[in-house]
Amino acid sequence: MTHSTYPIGTPGKQWNHEDKAHWLACQSIKRSYQQEVVTLIDELKSTLEVQQYGELNYAAGSYPLYALKTTDFDTNKATVLITGGVHGYETSGVHGALRFAKTLANKYAEHFNIVITPCISPWGYETINRWNPDAVDPNRSFYQGSTAQESAAVMNYVQSLNTDLIAHIDLHETTDSDNSEFRPALAAREGKVNTNWNIPDGFYLVADSNKPEPAFQKAIIEHVEKVTHIAPSDENQQLIGVPQTQFGVINYAGRDLGLCMGFSEAAYVTTTEVYPDSATANPEECILAQVAAISGALDYIINK
C-alpha cells in the first residue's frame, strides 16, 4: 500500500526550509505536558530523586526535561536506563515509564540503580507528533553531535551520570497513524515514494542486531503476554517489513540507525512496541504492557 502524495512539498524533492515551516504551521497543541506528565513527576518527589536535566527551547515555548532516579546511587550496583516519549505521540511509553516509577522502581532498587527519563520529546507529546519542531525524528538522531535537542540532552545527561549501564529499555508504540500520517510525511520530506508497512496487531520488541540477546527478549515477551497479546508476524513472516527472529521480536541496527536503544554500551537493550489501536486494547492495558516489559527485563537480569 502506498501514498503517492502528501499535502506538503513537491513530489520527488526533499523538503526545503519553506516546506518545513509549512509543516510546522500545521501542527497544534492537543494536550498538556505540564498537566499530564509534569504533575505526575512532581508526585514522585517523595520517593524518587527528580532532576531537571535540560530544557528544550522552541519558538512555541520552553519545555523542561526531567529524569527520575532511585535514591542513594550505589556504584556497586548495575544501572538501568528506562526511556519513554522519544516519540512524544506514543502515549503508553511516557505513562508506562511513569507507572513503573511509581509502582516498582523502588522494589528493583535493591538490585539496580534506576534512571528514568519518561518524556524525552515533550513538544511531540503535546502535538501528538513523531518529529520535533524542526521536522527531525529524535529516534534517528542518537549520535555524536546530534542536531536534535531532545536526543542530545538525554545523551549528555546519561554521560554525566558517569556510570556504566547494564540495561536500556526504550518504550515505544506502533500506531495506525504510522501509515496514515508519519510514514507519508517522512517520504514527502525525503522526496521519496512512500511504501506503508503492515501494522502489527499486538506487542512486539525490537532488539539490537549487534547484541540481540535472544533469551532476554524472549523473557520479556513471556512476561508481557500475561498482560496483552503478542503480535503475530504477517504473511511474509515479518513485522513492519523486517524478518521476525523469534516470536514477537525483530532486530534493528540500533547505533547505525541513530536509535535511542543504540547510544549506550549497555549489554541488554530492547525497544518495546505497544499497539494502542488494537480492537482489544485500552490505554490502561497498554501502560501495563510497558510496565510488564520493564519488570520482565529486570527479572531476567536478576535471575541470570
UniProtKB/TrEMBL annotation:
SUPFAM superfamilies (UniProt xref): Zn-dependent exopeptidases (SSF53187)
All copies of domain Peptidase M14, residue ranges: 29-304
Q: Which Pfam families match?
A: Peptidase_M14
Q: Which InterPro entries match?
A: Peptidase_M14 (IPR000834)
The text of the family note is:
Belongs to the peptidase M14 family.
Write down what this protein is called. Peptidase M14 domain-containing protein
